[in-house]
Amino acid sequence: MVWGAIKNAIGLGEPTLPDGPTRLPDYFPVEPKGCEKHSQNLFNCLANEATAKARDMERAGLHKSYFPDVTAQPTDAKAAQAVAEDPNNPALPKAGENPLDECRKFVAYYQRCCDRQLPKKKNMILKEHVRVQEEYRYKGPSTEEAPLVKS
Question: What is the model's pTM?
Answer without folding.
Answer: 0.71
